[in-house]
């Protein structure tokens, strides 16, 4: 037991500086690529389909609260994201952002359908205890300006929070694999992946990319290899979380897994990838960034504040104009809409954007080389 605890909480050693950089990347990807969900459209007019999950905040209610309830908490969610982005009262903002999402999503998922992109919204709940507000933030700027000494977050606290996040990710995959085993995927005569492919193809109309090509494959051994590899990968994710190095290998495999799912089942898990990014090697990247950051500190704070404020105002105006919109759109989605991209096309774009970022961070040397070539040299000039 002592060995397991040492492996679990001793191998997730990440610096606050690197995790602070991840906070910025997380928020920038939200405003530029992903967007945020809106729950202001909920209200008593939907009581006739109110059927919340048994274990949720919504189950404490007999129906939907008034429209003002959802508008108010949606505004709190937006404001907390803004504060988290600029790094002001960051820990509390992170907790409020995740907490309000969990509350609102419990009502949003009370129709019987649950989306699979929620992991990215749970992530700040864990990151709030890692010290990701200690650098590249208004909190840090004000503390330095007023010469206030802020005690560092103990490395044990960071390790514990990241280990819990890893366990949650592993448990999510483990439950997905366990359900497949219970459903018979492990039996030789069952072709689970093929069944899901046919169901998605004919029932949901997901016919793009490789789907139609795979439909033509009628080799039982091929489909069983797909079944067994999926089961081994998903069930093995939870024990892999015990060691950070092994877990990173599984995360890299998960990125490939999600890309295959995107190309075959036409289902995007781009939001999940933001939940994997805390485990990339941010410390080396932040070390590269620090000299440039020191020289351009005021410009950096101004640009961050401007970007965060611009999107906060844009989203507030959008909410005032149409409270029934399902999401607050990112820059990519606004551009895709203006260029008349189909929803599926910009789904592919933002999925591949996150995939590219993850692979670059996974191969730290490649990212550092690109960073030195395109950023540090330009700053030096």
From TrEMBL:
Ranges of residues in domain HTTM-like: 11-281
Determine if Transmembrane helix is one of this entry's keywords: yes
Where it sits in the cell: the answer is: Endomembrane system
Record's keyword annotation contains Transferase:
no
Q: Show which residues constitute the signal peptide.
A: none
Where's it mainly located?
membrane
Transmembrane stretches in the record are 21-43, 63-85, 92-112, 160-179, 225-242, 254-279, 299-321, 341-362
Sorted alphabetically, which keywords does the UniProt record give? Membrane, Transmembrane, Transmembrane helix
Membrane topology for this entry? Multi-pass membrane protein
Taxonomically, which superkingdom? Answer: Bacteria
Gene Ontology CC, one term? endomembrane system
UniProt name for this protein: HTTM-like domain-containing protein
Source organism per entry reads: Cnuella takakiae
């Amino acid at each position: 037991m002592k060995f397991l605890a040492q492996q679990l909480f001793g191998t997730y050693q990440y610096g606050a500086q690197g995790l602070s950089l991840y906070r910025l990347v997380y928020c920038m990807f939200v405003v530029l690529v992903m967007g945020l969900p809106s729950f202001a459209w909920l209200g008593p007019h939907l009581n006739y389909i109110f059927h919340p999950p048994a274990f949720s905040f919504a189950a404490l209610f007999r129906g939907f609260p008034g429209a003002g309830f959802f508008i108010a908490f949606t505004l709190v969610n937006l404001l907390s994201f803004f504060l988290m982005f600029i790094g002001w009262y960051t820990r509390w903002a992170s907790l409020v952002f995740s907490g309000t999402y969990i509350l609102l999503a419990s009502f949003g998922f009370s129709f019987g359908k649950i989306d699979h992109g929620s992991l990215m919204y749970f992530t700040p709940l864990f990151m709030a205890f890692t010290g990701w507000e200690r650098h590249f933030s208004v909190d840090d700027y004000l503390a330095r300006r007023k010469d206030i000494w802020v005690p560092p977050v103990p490395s044990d606290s960071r390790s514990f929070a990241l280990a819990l996040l890893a366990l949650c990710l592993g448990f999510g995959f483990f439950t997905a694999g366990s359900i497949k085993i219970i459903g018979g995927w492990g039996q030789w005569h069952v072709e689970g992946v093929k069944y899901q492919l046919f169901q998605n193809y004919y029932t949901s109309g997901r016919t793009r990319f490789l789907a139609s090509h795979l439909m033509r494959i009628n080799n039982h051994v091929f489909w069983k290899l797909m079944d067994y590899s999926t089961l081994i990968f998903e069930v093995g994710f939870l024990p892999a979380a015990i060691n950070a190095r092994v877990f990173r290998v599984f995360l890299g495999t998960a990125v490939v897994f999600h890309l295959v799912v995107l190309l075959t089942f036409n289902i995007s898990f781009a939001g999940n990838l933001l939940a994997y990014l805390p485990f990339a090697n941010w410390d080396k990247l932040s070390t590269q960034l620090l000299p440039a950051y020191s020289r351009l500190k005021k410009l950096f704070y101004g640009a961050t504040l401007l970007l965060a404020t611009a999107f906060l105002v844009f989203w507030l105006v959008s909410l005032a104009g149409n409270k029934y919109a399902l999401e607050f759109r990112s820059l990519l989605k606004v551009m895709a809409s203006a260029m008349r991209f189909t929803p599926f096309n910009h789904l592919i774009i933002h999925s591949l954007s996150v995939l590219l970022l993850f692979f670059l961070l996974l191969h730290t040397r490649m990212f550092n080389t690109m960073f030195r070539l395109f950023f540090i040299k330009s700053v030096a000039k």
